[in-house]
Design goal:
alpha/beta, eight-stranded mixed sheet, three-stranded antiparallel sheet
Length: about 190
């Protein structure tokens, strides 16, 4: 099973469906994703389950329907165990971005955190998870696969929001403030915590 978000709406890719979920279920190989996304975005459908009987084919089938954009980012902690957040598009988020040619996914994660926040001296400590969300760019829906890493840093310098990426603020947040920020964040980010 995979969770794919479009804004706050959920699409589940699954090879199993419960009887109470039949009305929300569509065959992955046959579904018109643009139609489905429109229904979800308009609030006419609360969630959708895209079914295919072979679990190992769920993602590859979805990739045939939407162009894939790979990205990476970090859940970064400092010496005070505060978490690094960015504020963009009216929501608290974590730094992340698309891979560049010739770059491996871990290099992307570190580069994007540095570019979006000004934080340096990053060390990846573990892989956390992959998240999926659908977005629209140039009139076309795309699927973003983000690889998330836990990172640590001793950096205590100035935080520099990457304005050209519409990042308005960069802040370190303690656990209590992080809980508050997550109330105004994305479902994919909430999954990481």
């Amino acid at each position: 099973m995979y969770k794919v978000f479009i804004n706050e709406k959920l699409i589940i890719l699954s090879n199993q469906v419960q009887k109470n979920e039949i009305s929300d279920t569509y065959l992955l190989k046959d579904v018109d994703l643009e139609w489905l996304i429109g229904k979800l975005s308009a609030g006419k459908i609360g969630k959708a389950i895209l079914y295919h009987d072979k679990s190992e084919e769920l993602l590859s089938l979805l990739y045939t329907k939407l162009p894939l954009v790979e990205a990476a980012g970090g859940l970064v902690k400092n010496d005070k165990q505060e978490t690094l957040f960015i504020f963009r598009n009216g929501k608290w988020d974590l730094p992340k971005g698309k891979t560049e040619k010739g770059e491996n996914i871990e290099e992307t994660a570190v580069r994007e955190v540095e570019e979006e926040t000004g934080v340096t001296g990053l060390a990846i400590t573990e892989f956390l998870m992959k998240t999926y969300h659908i977005f629209k760019r140039n009139g076309e829906y795309r699927l973003k696969l983000t690889h998330w890493y836990k990172m640590e840093t001793k950096y205590d310098g100035e935080l520099l929001p990457q304005i050209e990426e519409d990042i308005m603020k960069v802040e370190w947040k303690n656990d209590a403030d992080a809980v508050i920020a997550l109330q105004n964040s994305y479902e994919n980010i909430k999954l990481l915590f």
